[in-house]
Amino acid sequence: MHGHVVGQKDRKGQIVEVRGPGGAPPFLVRYDDGHEQLVYPGPDAVVMPAGDGS
């Protein structure tokens, strides 16, 4: 995830569960440190498939 707050680092995580209807948010995301968070991505969010090299 990329935020617009100065000094906030980008975070990478894996969507482990889709809780919205038809594949829509919210998404349960697990980050590298094991932390899980319910995420409602904003309109400028980019969701990339795993293995894209980013």
Secondary structure layout plus pairing:
Blueprint: E1 13-18, E2 27-31, E3 36-39
Antiparallel strand pairs: 1-2, 2-3
Profile the largest sheet.
3 strands, antiparallel
**How much helicity do the residues have?**
under 10%
| Broad shape | globular
The gyration radius over C-alpha positions equals 12 Å
Sketch the topology as an H/E string, one letter per element: EEE
Assembly of the depicted chains: single chain
Number of helices: 0
Q: What does this entry look like structurally?
A:
- It contains no helices and three strands.
- It has 54 residues and is mainly β.
- Strands 1-2-3 form a three-stranded antiparallel sheet, with no helix packed on it.
- A hairpin with an 8-residue loop joins strand 1 (13-18) and strand 2.
- The mean pLDDT is 82.
